[in-house]
Amino acid sequence: xxxxxxxxxxxxxxxxxxxxxxxxxxxxxxxxxxxxxxxxxxxxxxxxxxxxxxxxxxxxxxxxxxxxxxxxxxxxxxxxxxxxxxxxxxxxxxxxxxxxxxxxxxxxxxxxxxxxxxxxxxxxxxxxxxxxxxxxxxxxxxxxxxxxxxxxxxxxxxxxxxxxxxxxxxxxxxxxxxxxxxxxxxxxxxxxxxxxxxxxxxxxxxxxxxxxxxxxxxxxxxxxxxxxxxxxxxxxxxxxxxxxxxxxxxxxxxxxxxxxxxxxxxxxxxxxxxxxxxxxxxxxxxxxxxxxxxxxxxxxxxxxxxxxxxxxxxxxxxxxxxxxxxxxxxxxxxxxxxxxxxxxxxxxxxxxxxxxxxxxxxxxxxxxxxxxxxxxxxxxxxxxxxxxxxxxxxxxxxxxxxxxx
Length: 405
Prior knowledge:
Elements: H1 3-34, E1 57-62, E2 71-81, E3 87-97, E4 105-111, H2 136-141, E5 145-149, H3 165-179, E6 187-196, H4 198-213, E7 219-225, H5 231-238, H6 242-258, H7 260-263, H8 270-280, H9 289-295, H10 312-320, E8 331-336, H11 344-356, E9 361-366, H12 380-394
Parallel strand pairs: 4-5, 4-6, 6-7, 7-8, 8-9
Antiparallel strand pairs: 1-2, 2-3, 3-5
Helix pairs in contact: 3-4, 5-6, 6-8
């Protein structure tokens, strides 16, 4: 090959390589942009004046996204109370069978698991709003009303206080109050709370808080499936796993915004801070999760926090949000034996601790079930949950599995 031809060939290869590089960068940038949460529409905007009373129905409209045939649903905006006591708003979905026996219908108050901490990660905003709701179709066959809160700061503005138990419980209880104000919906004064993972923590806190915060919401039982119960242990045992690192990223953002003392302990700069902040800006549950999974490779095995999760302000706040207060209604705790996020041994320790404290618990474990398959269609936990709920609403005797004292 002549020198002139060699130079021309080299320039051609260089141009092709540069073009491919630019194409790859553009593809990655486009995919990254597409992985960001959707922007909630105007329905979620706060009114000019917030109601001072929690549980007030602010607005409502029909909701049809993946709603089963024979079911009618609405999305609602309502008032609630944030961690520090300030008035706030939250959104929820309310659904009921189009035909059911006459008379008031009991409520299943659903507390959803981890979806993210960005506003666009509200279940009602996402493409699959009822993902991981166990026995969803059974709710309507039984003639019950589904009330699923998004929690404050998901859908609405102001930031989501992820795994801040009392704030989540208030959102659950106020969603039930707001649902009662829907026209042409006959809501009974019997409510059973269901929750999974993050929502299991929320469900337990709902049982704790109901008598003092919302005595008008009469609970018949609390069912927590794979609940994030012992939060210090959740962070400690999960810090080396992919989803555990994502959970820690959400916690770092949420606790840093909620608690100034924790904010002072979180990294302020560097590649770790950039990676964790980007993870916290994305939802989980779809293909967008792949970006977060890739970024967890930048998170060291010691986790995202500067101190162990049992120490300092973080440790104190995690203990503060672990549901260790009495619950006056029957409690079901269901746990998959193959769960690698909420470890069975940790859950067993929590149940033992609460039983020793005098709490009556129906504790059940499920062989071959991990964190998500516990609530998947066909899981035996779902059938047990429906039967257990039916018994609670009928006022039948509750049998605790705690050892006799």
